[in-house]
Amino acid sequence: MRTYIGLISGTSADGIDAALVEFAPQPRLRLALRQDYPEPLRQALLALATEQAPISLRQLGSLDHGVAVCAVEAVQRLLQQADTPPAAVTAIGSHGQTIAHYPDHEPPFSLQVGDPSVIAEYTGITTVADFRRRDMAAGGQGAPLVPIFHQSILSSTKEDRVVANIGGMANITLLPRAGAPVRGFDTGPGNALLDEWISARRGEAFDRDGAWAATGTVERDLLRALLADPYFERRPPKSTGREYFNRRWLEGRLPTRELRDGNVQATLSQLSAETIAAAVRAELPGAARLIVCGGGARNHDLLGRLGTALAPMPVVTSDIYGVDPDWVEAMAFAWLAARTLEGLPGNLPEVTGARRPVILGGIYPGRA
Fold first, then answer.
1. How far apart are CA 128 and CA 103, in angstroms?
2. Which of 204, 241, 243, 244 is deepest in the core (most CB within 10 A)?
């Protein structure tokens, strides 16, 4: 049995998810936890991602180090709670915190902070990091990378399935039951705009259970304006992030007339649901079910809207397959780290658009 740790901080930039995963040989989650970012660090990361504020090299280095220190603290807490020594862990797979993702620019570019040298040195555990850029070097989008893990743990030989990973952004994985290749792409915003709006209007970090959105009425004119963005009509492969779908994007599409804040929140929830549902219907209309993971799996309002938009297709969470939806991405980067150390590809060209399968990431040895 091999033991790995996966670390991920998504586009919500609220902290680091850490998962202790055992492979025997299938991955099994042993323990997981969240390490929150200190608020000044979180605000600096959000400002950089959504406002594209100028940043000095010294500030960039500070963010790189700050995220890495939080990652180290997450690993140390995880090992302490699991009563597991660092020597028992084969490697850490650390995604880092994305601060820039421009796959369609020339040249394409993606940058994550969270210095893996600091993680390897402070924990003593070999660390695999910088997963996205090798795929981009091979002509891919560098995202999404989790579909290959979805294929490993959630595919079926008896039915077509779709997995929706709903974090700040939402992506889907198309899992045909036989023959056809696995595909996947970012559908657009998941929770990011919901988080932005409730933060701006209520000073809250997120809309717990979608309770605020559930009180509102969808503003159909606003929804049409949001859905008119050309990203939603683009054919995959495609990926996106807060660099595109952020508060400035939303405010540029709000009407001049005053709207009730709760109605805007409901409209943003409907936007996420409709763009995910439209992608499912367009790409795998015969799917037997939609399996939801990520933070969006806890948003009851969003799940209800998805269920309505896709009816009669069942919408379920990954819980029913024994996979906690909160920790799927962290588990995925433990799994990808294992792939890298085994010399196996970690991307799916049908998903990212890369020319070929490639081994992802760099390896930073731990202390001997």
1. 22
2. 241
DSSP 310-333: HTTS-EEEGGGGT--GGGHHHHHH
- Assign domain 147-325 to its CATH architecture: 2-Layer Sandwich (3.30)
- CA 332 – CA 347 distance, rounded (Å): 12
CATH architecture of the domain with range 2-142+328-364 = 2-Layer Sandwich (3.30)
pLDDT per residue as tens, the chain (368 positions)? 899 999 999 877 889 999 999 998 889 999 999 999 999 999 899 888 666 668 899 999 999 999 999 999 999 999 999 999 999 999 999 999 999 899 999 999 999 999 999 999 999 999 999 999 999 999 999 999 999 999 999 999 999 999 999 999 999 999 999 778 999 999 999 999 999 999 999 999 899 999 999 999 999 999 999 999 999 999 999 999 988 999 999 999 999 889 999 999 999 999 999 999 999 999 999 999 999 999 999 999 999 999 999 999 999 999 999 999 999 999 999 999 999 999 999 999 999 999 999 999 999 999 86
Alpha helices, DSSP H, located in 2-131: 39-51, 57-82, 116-123
**pTM beyond 0.90:** yes
Grouping H, G, I as helix, E, B as strand and the rest as coil, residue 275 is: helix
Any residues with CB less than 8 A from the CB of 106 and at least 6 apart, and which? none
